[in-house]
Amino acid sequence: MTGSQRTTFCEGDEEDGGGTHMLKRRIVAIFLLTLSLLALPAGAGEMPASPQKSNVQKEAAYPPYSDVWDWKIPESDKSLDPSATPSVRVKAMDNGDVLITYEPDLAKAVVKYVTFFGKSVVTNPAEIYKNDYTNDAKSRIPFKDGNFLKTIGGGMRSYGCVDQLRFHIAIYDKTELKLISNKTLLYIFDKPEYYETKPPVCMDGPSFYYRVRAVAAGFLPLKDGTFLLVSRNGDGHIIRFDENFQTKSKLMNNKFFWMDTDELSRFEAKYGDRADGDKNLKQLYADLYELLMNRKRREIE
User: Who wins on pLDDT, 141 or 107?
Assistant: First the structure.
């Protein structure tokens, strides 16, 4: 071979100018490196994993329940349209909390979701509803002692004649034949509403503005013996009570007032009778509003 010529040997050629020995040294080096890595403790030499943020909000299981006793549609969500009709529904969650589904204005079909106790905005309501979109607030629920809580009455008479004081909330015994307690939950709304009487059909006296109505309620029992009362009057409120109608809600004796139903009936009787044609609802609602305002003032004092 001349000095300018080069001989190329392939792996395994017998005329290896040291190639075979080089291959053996590489194999030995790889073997020793493997042994050293096996001797390291588990996880050594690895880069630490970056913390992962979960998209699933971790909420505490209930009970025990947090000290939450009421909820209302946030002022920022309320419709500016005075004729808007809001809607509120509730759904018991697997973790013991309650999902509130609310629409500030049914006409606009804007739906929002929040939890009652956790006060968390819910972005995945379908996972909670699980294809069951029924409202869990019922007109009748059992208490732990076997008695029943029921909402009774209606807010309008025939021919559109108004009677916003007919709803009441009663506790019956296990047979649902014996009345144990009968109360009316009265609500004072912010802006007066106008009722135009329709003589001679309704016999309600002169037309009038009023600011008081009895609450039509739905109930959702909780695992600690308390229950949520969900107003169905379109005012967007929920109040939590125990079985004795006690609550820590500051809405009571402020916007809402309990009144014994028999006491309310006696109060109403002082303002005439429709059968006699001398019913004066205008004065009745005005005096009832003043009665509740006096109670509120005494509560503040």
Answer: 141
What pLDDT shows up at residue 159? Answer: 67
The type of residue at 227 is: F
pLDDT of residue 156: 60
Residues ≥6 apart with Cβ < 8 Å to 230: 88, 89, 90, 137, 217, 218, 219, 220, 237, 238
Cα–Cα nearest to 288, from 270, 274, 273, 267:
267
Q: Which of 182, 148, 156, 162 shows the shortest CA–CA distance to 258? A: 182
Count the neighbouring beta carbons within 10 Å of the beta carbon of residue 143. 14
- The helices-and-strands tally (H runs, E runs) of the chain is 4, 13
Q: Is the Cβ–Cβ distance between 239 and 98 less than 8 Å?
A: no
pTM: 0.78
CA angle 139, 91, 79 (to 5 degrees): 90
Which pLDDT belongs to residue 157?
67
- pLDDT value of position 221: 98
If we measure between CA atoms, which residue out of 115, 69, 109 comes closest to residue 87?
A: 109
**Contact yes or no for 86/74 (Cβ under 8 A):** no
Query: Is the peptide bond prior to 200 cis by the omega test (within 30 degrees of 0)?
Result: yes
Q: DSSP of 230-275, one letter per residue?
A: EE-SSS-EEEEE-TTS----TTBTTTEEEEEHHHHHHHHHTT--GG
How much of the chain, in percent, has pLDDT values that exceed 70?
Answer: 78
Query: What pLDDT score was predicted for residue 81?
Result: 82
Provide φ and ψ at 286, rounded to 5°: -65, -45
Please give the single-letter amino acid code of residue 286: A
